[in-house]
């Protein structure tokens, strides 16, 4: 190693002092490249003239920083009310999930709500202008105040901004843009960092909301250097199963609102549409009670959502029984199975156990632990639970049922959808009317209640 040199990952930009075979940040192999350390010694900074005088915080005008609704209500929910002037939003998702379709809808609603003075400029670096126009025709998102440019050079994008003077700028995607002031190929660490920094400076200087489309890696994280997520104000993940029409926009970072909100959409042939009440999408309405199913209530941001957990327990013909998980946290499911076997004397060691959620929903919240345990018990003993029962609670290693946040909101949503009974942890706080609750201190107690009912 040369004196005064460092090693930088070509995938994510992580810098380390010594060479490593595997990047400690993105876990990529063979991507560490040696770079000469050009950092100058820290010098004293002389005081300069401020660009504007400091004012008391009470005298600062906040009207110019109010969020402006995009016209897409589910996206506004995730953003915290809309787009703040000068905000930079990074929307990341897998190829073909519907990012461009959603942003065409945003551009159309923005243009329709503001006319020529609030025009939307859509810059595409991945497709031709004709291809984007065909998609806009198919989805009905064509407006005279929508401007379209097919560019991959950042200086040309700035020229279009000067000519159009838009109220909203959409760049699809940041990995296809290149800056003449930076080295490397488009999509590289240096280029992505330079392009993002220039667009952030443009947004802040002109008070222009900018939406950037980003690619994701095979692990599901945003492609490019990690600094890209630090530069922008809002990071959104656009998720969805290619075999399902359900799409979710999940907030990961938000400087102007909650960072854990979700917005639900349905992708159709003629466009994308928000789903304001998505609870029914994650439930199967069975004509008769079916063994191996239990209903939980999870909270995403401020929105309670009902989800159905399904389980299947079968005799295993393998030396090591199989554990398959879909839509749930596999580590928590394994823990719940161990607690179920050890604390309640339910033999599962020689059986295959399959667990999944309905509707492609992904749940990592511990509040579904009790529902997972009840679904597995129901499948193991071929005993169907009541279709009007919901289970809420985190299961500990000692078999206890722990409190979770927002039990009242969860039960109110369950009661609204017709559920009449609920298992809840002890001391869950004030509970709503319209649903009968049963406090269970442990998993064994919950199973005793169910066994007594079906005995």
From TrEMBL:
Residue ranges of the region described as Lon-protease-like: 352-455
InterPro entries per the UniProt record, alphabetical: AAA+_ATPase (IPR003593), DNA_repair_RadA (IPR004504), P-loop_NTPase (IPR027417), RecA_ATP-bd (IPR020588), Ribosomal_Su5_D2-typ_SF (IPR020568), Ribsml_uS5_D2-typ_fold_subgr (IPR014721), Rubredoxin_2 (IPR041166)
SMART domains: AAA
PROSITE patterns: RECA_2
Intervals of motif RadA KNRFG motif: 253-257
GO biological process: recombinational repair
Protein residues bound to ATP: 93-100
Keywords: ATP-binding, DNA damage, DNA repair, DNA-binding, Hydrolase, Metal-binding, Nucleotide-binding, Stress response, Zinc, Zinc-finger
Recorded GO MF terms: ATP binding; ATP-dependent DNA damage sensor activity; damaged DNA binding; hydrolase activity; zinc ion binding
Pfam families: AAA_25, ChlI, Zn_ribbon_LapB
Cellular component terms (Gene Ontology): cytosol
Domain RecA family profile: 64-216
PANTHER family: DNA REPAIR PROTEIN RADA (PTHR32472), DNA REPAIR PROTEIN RADA-LIKE PROTEIN (PTHR32472:SF10)
Family designation: Belongs to the RecA family. RadA subfamily.
Function statement: Plays a role in repairing double-strand DNA breaks, probably involving stabilizing or processing branched DNA or blocked replication forks.
Domain remark in the UniProt entry: The middle region has homology to RecA with ATPase motifs including the RadA KNRFG motif, while the C-terminus is homologous to Lon protease.
Protein name per UniProt: DNA repair protein RadA
